[in-house]
Amino acid sequence: MVGQRNWNRRMAAFVFLLPAVLGLIAFQLLPMASSVVVSFSDWDLLSKWTDIHFIGWSNYAEVFTNEKSYMSIKNVFIFLIGYMPVITVLGIFLAVLLNRNIRGMKLYRAAVFIPVITSWVAVSIIWRWLLNGQSGVVNYLLSLAGIQGPIWLQSEHWAMVAIIFVSIWKDIGFVSIILLAGLQDISDDYYEAANLDGASAWSQLWRITVPLLSPTLFFIVTISLINSFQVFDQVLIMTNGGPAGSTSTIVEQVYRNAFQYNKMGFAAAQSWVLFGIIFLVTIGMQRLQRRWVVYER
């Protein structure tokens, strides 16, 4: 009787899990396995599977030798250098401000988070208009202060700066709210003891808040790194990868090679190279966390 009940439970679990497992296999595992095979071929998306020609590691070699592909990889790291430090530091200070107990704070927190839930398409279109070099609001405001604004999205020097700025503006709400949750998990006892010892607010920030906030910071840095490597929407809409490829990214190149140039094999190789970069960076972050992340409270 007991054995029959256990069997029925296992069968019920199998029946309930089967649709999800089949969906996982059909829409994730099989496409991933297929992309590995395609990455070693010259498939053009239009030919039959029987006409595929395997070319070995040529696509992977081209990822690093092709000028546009190499530039897209370099641009992603340029984006990271400009994006990560700024959004992390600003996120900490904004979280500290949002952690204050003042009237209307819930409204302020909601306002900060609004850009996060706004579509990247809508945000990119609005900022493309605001950053218009001739009739944009940003340059108009700069002109009131006697500053001649650049042609943001048509300049090789300023286009990536504009992409980074807009990305920070949209993502800062997510970062600050997550850090705010981490701040509220820190006991007030630490700050009371610091006040008794005469520690300044700045000293408390760097000697209490930041160390105890390090697990949350580690999560934010890891998620932001992964998302930064996959930056795409704002680039495609605001600059279309230009000017002269100065804002082209890996995902943008994957999209173009796969669906515009019909170089599906090369696009699949670029995708797996991107996966490898993200995987290595994530492993590196996991190892480095032992040196600076404090889990004891």
Task: Summarize the structure in words.
The structure is a single chain. The protein has 297 residues and is mainly α. It has 13 helices and no strands. It has helices at residues 2-38, 58-65, 67-98, 105-117, 120-130, 137-144, 159-184, 188-196, 201-212, 214-229, 233-238, 250-259, 264-292. The mean pLDDT is 89.
Main β sheet profile: none
Shape estimate: globular
Percentage of residues in helical conformation: over 70%
How many individual helices?
Answer: 13
Q: State the low-pLDDT regions, or none.
A: none
What is the class in the CATH system?
A: Mainly Alpha
How do the SSEs run, as a string of H and E?
Answer: HHHHHHHHHHHHH
Instruction: Please indicate the count of domains.
Output: 1
Distance between the termini: 50 Å
Quote the CATH topology.
Answer: MetI-like fold
The whole-number mean of residue pLDDT values reads 89
CATH homology superfamily: MetI-like
Q: How many strand segments? A: 0
β-strand amount: under 5%
Supply the helix-strand structural class: mainly alpha
